[in-house]
Amino acid sequence: MQSLYGAIANYKLKKIMAVSVDKVYQKVLAIANKEQRGYITPQEFNLFADYAQMDIFRQYFYDLSQLRRRPGNDTNYADETSIIEEKISMFNLYQQNAGTYNALGDINLSTNFPKLHKITEVRFWDNNGSVEIDESKIGNQHQHYSKSPLIQNAINSRVGGYYIMHSAITGDSIIRVYPNPDTNSGEYVTISYIRRPEQPNWTYVISGDSALFNQSSDFQDFELHSSEENMLVIKILQLAGVNIKDVNLTQIAAQEELKKIQQEKQ
């Protein structure tokens, strides 16, 4: 059972990791109208919003990779690595049961984990506990890899071996676990991973000629850190400028983005 402290910490984190989709839309409209660049429809905004959010989300991992090559900072508030790790932390899911396997030990990630972005750990479990298993990068040569004395010993002792990743004919992403878990003996696999953020959705009702914000059942705020609000506005304006073929609007947004990046790197 989750502790009270853990529940409170998780609640606070979720509050930080959210940006109002309505607030962003209103800012985008206000800036576009101020520059007399035309109207951005809710449908267009939702498409741009999803693209902008994923662009920022993916950038976390590139930035984190670069920052980890540099010396850290003892001051938590100024440690960029810690800041990005905090932004990613909401999307971490730990030891999720991988579900069913076929006769080859295949786990369909596309079906079982449709929001999966990046696997962080795979564990093989039996009645004695669990062991982390690694990915084999050697593709079709896994049969040779499985003959390694170290791996073979792991397989024979039923404490896990390794897994490979491949794509099904359908295009689904698959991992194949060696040895194939024997569910009759209580063996199974868990996967820890980072999920993708939920797709933002500005929901509305039509009143006269206007679309008015209406928080319906499929409404969805951005799932990014609250500090990303201005960057979302900038990126959506860039996309809107491209869509309406307005070079000036795109340049205005690009200049704002460059200014923000330069400030962060100072």
Structural class: alpha+beta
Total helical elements = 9
SSE pattern:
HHHHEEHEEHHEEEEEHH
Could you give the count of β-strands? 9
Uncertain parts: 1-12
Largest sheet: 7 strands, mixed
Mass-distribution shape: elongated
Task: Give the fraction of residues assigned to helices.
Answer: 40-55%
Strand order of the largest sheet: 1-7-3-4-5-6-2
The fraction of residues assigned to DSSP E strands is 15-25%
Radius of gyration: 23 Å
What's the assembly state of these chains?
A: single chain
Mean pLDDT, all residues: 79
Distance between the termini: 43 Å
Structure summarized in a few sentences:
The chain is built from nine helices and nine strands.
What does the model show?
- The chain is of the alpha+beta class and 266 residues long.
- 42% of the residues lie in helices and 21% in strands.
- It is built from 9 helices and 9 strands.
- The protein has helices at 4-16, 21-34, 42-67, 80-89, 109-112, 142-145, 149-156, 229-243, 247-265, and strands spanning 92-97, 106-108, 116-126, 129-135, 162-167, 173-178, 188-195, 204-207, 210-213.
- It has a 7-stranded mixed β-sheet with strand order 1-7-3-4-5-6-2. Strands 8-9 form a two-stranded antiparallel sheet.
- The chain is elongated.
- The two termini are 43 Å apart.
- Mean pLDDT is 79; it is low at 1-12.
Notable traits:
266 residues, alpha+beta, 9 helices, elongated
Please render the helix and strand layout as text.
Blueprint (H helix, E strand, L loop, with lengths): L3 H13 L4 H14 L7 H26 L12 H10 L2 E6 L8 E3 H4 L3 E11 L2 E7 L6 H4 L3 H8 L5 E6 L5 E6 L9 E8 L8 E4 L2 E4 L15 H15 L3 H19 L1
Parallel strand pairs: 4-5
Antiparallel strand pairs: 1-7, 2-6, 3-4, 3-7, 5-6, 8-9
